[in-house]
Amino acid sequence: MARIAVDALGGDRAPHEIVAGALDAAADGIEVILFGPAGTETRGLPLVETTGEIEMHEKPAEAVRAKPDSSLVAAHVAVAEGRADAVVSAGNTGAMLAAGLLHLRRVPGVLRPAIAVPIPTQRGPSVLLDSGANADARAEHLLQFAYMGAIFAQEILEIAQPEVRLLSIGEEPEKGNQLTLEAHALLAAASDLGFAGNAESRDLLAGAADVVVCDGFTGNVALKLLEGTIKTVLEALREEITSSPRGKLGGLFIRPAARHLRQKLDPDTYGGAYLLGLRGLSVIAHGNSSARAISNAIHLAARGVEHDVVGRLAARLPERRSSAAV
After folding, report:
1. Which of 12, 114, 173, 243 has its CA 20 to 30 A from that of 54?
2. Is residue 218 within 8 Å of 133, Cβ to Cβ?
3. Is residue 316 packed enough to be buried (19+ CB in 10 Å), middle (13-18) or exposed (0-12)?
4. Across the chain, how many H-helices and E-strands are there?
């Protein structure tokens, strides 16, 4: 049974939505351990008492070192010491990265950890990485992200031979900035990777590839654009349906399809993103996560434990080591 350390203070809706989501995941047999201040209403779930909180506006590295007894850091320490198998938080993303690097540390051979986000597409789930851990990256980093993403797709998305593409401004190999040109050359030379060329952002929701690779700045912009577009379109559709008697009548007929579409495109369906490349499993949930999103993030973490994502990644990445400075 997977033991998941959950930061009860992480996110805009903490602690109520966090606890509700944790309870839902625990009902499915996952062992959830909450980390938060004394007096937190856990509704029966175990609580490790902490005294500090890392807030969204704080500088991540400084806050992680200055607040070792914060809920976010204490949850990471529990994983590092073997008292939990994975950590989940909807808190400060930068602090999650800093705490992971400090306490969990990188897998040997990993140049940079990367945030791997499952995104819904017409073809099924796809993974986008890096989605925000590294605003600046080099070509060799993107090559390694591609290998990490391929392992993720095989182990979590259960895709036997994942197709990998590089996010760029055109499908042609010569399109893109210097980073994408250099990364394309490295990816194309990796015969064991399943690289199929460039992909454009307009094709992400259509299912551009099983794994889409980019630097963290580009990935985070693309991810937030997708989330905002999905939310806006679905809300606009709901408003149109309810704006007139004719729309309401038509809504009765399309309601099942609309509900299915919402569930398929809703970011809460996956709930979180793996921070790949660390010696411990870390799942970052959205800051505005609902109870459903937290539950799904905990399930995502448990799946990663069951599939031994960290161990498999460590076993398959050493040959990708680089002497380049990080």
Report:
1. 114
2. no
3. middle
4. 10, 11
Q: Which two tokens stand for residue 307?
A: 């599939």
Check if the beta carbon of residue 72 is closer than 8 Å to that of residue 14. no
List the one residue out of 153, 141, 137, 121 whose CA is nearest residue 274.
153
pTM given for the model: 0.88
Q: Give the separation between CA 248 and CA 244, rounded to whole angstroms.
A: 6
Confidence at residue 294, expressed as pLDDT on a 0 to 100 scale: 95
And the tokens for 316? 């398959």
Lowest mean pLDDT among 36-50, 98-112, 121-135: 121-135
Contacts of residue 32, Cβ cutoff 8 Å, sequence gap at least 6: 4, 6, 22, 23, 25, 26, 45, 46, 298
The residue with tokens 């990816």 is: 187
Place of tokens 């007096």: 39
* Residue 149 dihedral angles phi and psi, to the nearest 5°: -65, -35
